[in-house]
């Protein structure tokens, strides 16, 4: 979202007397979000639910944001200048052009407040109404019950368990492979 449209959306929300949940803005990530995204990725709970390594550098986040992949959309949830969460959708190519992969995370201190739901809704809207993706895929650690519940509620189904998928906190961890199929 361009800054001008973003400012108009903020004004509209304020005039409407928006609650904190409604004042959360879901928008495209931009280069000046690097510091906030780096802080988000440094949180232990956020990192525990993703494949991120500890101690991300601001330079690595800036580099990723400054060289965007044309097949990927990166979103942030933001309120009052604070990055509350982020999400991404990567469209696959070739014979898998009908499919995409998603990933997301929310600040440790803001979980359970609907931020993940809002980010997921934005990704689903993009996939269904703009990219015509029929299949969305994700992996989620088997111990992340809140995320699994969110994905199930959005129509994702379990397709299998990938054993010892990632090394996390000194041990190997399993993930669920989940997918959502949109039928024509």
Description:
With 184 residues, this protein is of the alpha+beta class. It is 32% helix and 33% strand. The chain is built from six helices and seven strands. It has helices spanning 3-15, 34-41, 44-48, 58-66, 115-129, 145-153; strands spanning 25-28, 72-79, 82-91, 99-106, 135-141, 157-168, 171-181. It has a seven-stranded mixed beta sheet with strand order 1-2-3-4-5-7-6, sandwiched between helices. Helix 2 packs across helix 4 (58-66).
Unreliable spans are 1-6, 12-20
Give the percentage of residues in beta strands: 25-35%
Distance between the termini: 29 Å
Give the overall silhouette: globular
Alpha plus pi helix count:
6
Q: Kindly provide the radius of gyration, computed on alpha-carbon positions and rounded to a whole number of angstroms.
A: 17 Å
The SSE order reads: HEHHHEEEHEHEE
Oligomer: single chain
Characterize the largest beta sheet: strand count, sense, and whether it forms a barrel. Answer: 7 strands, mixed
The helicity comes to: 25-40%
Chain-averaged pLDDT: 89
Q: Would you report the number of β strands?
A: 7
Structural class: alpha+beta
What topology, given as strand order, has the largest sheet? 1-2-3-4-5-7-6
């Amino acid at each position: 979202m361009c800054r001008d449209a973003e400012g108009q959306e903020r004004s509209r929300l304020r005039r409407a007397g928006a609650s904190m949940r409604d004042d959360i803005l879901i928008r495209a990530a931009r280069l000046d979000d690097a510091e906030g995204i780096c802080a988000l990725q440094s949180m232990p709970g956020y990192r525990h639910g993703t494949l991120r390594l500890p101690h991300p550098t601001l330079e690595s986040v800036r580099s990723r944001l400054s060289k965007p992949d044309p097949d990927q959309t990166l979103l942030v949830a933001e309120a009052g200048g604070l990055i509350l969460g982020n999400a991404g959708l990567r469209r696959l190519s070739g014979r898998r052009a009908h499919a995409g992969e998603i990933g997301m995370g929310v600040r440790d201190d803001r979980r359970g407040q609907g931020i993940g739901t809002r980010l997921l809704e934005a990704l689903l809207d993009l996939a269904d109404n703009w990219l015509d993706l029929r299949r969305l895929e994700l992996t989620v650690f088997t111990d992340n019950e809140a995320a699994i519940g969110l994905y199930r509620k959005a129509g994702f189904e379990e397709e299998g368990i990938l054993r010892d998928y990632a090394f996390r906190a000194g041990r190997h961890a399993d993930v669920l492979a989940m997918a959502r199929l949109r039928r024509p």
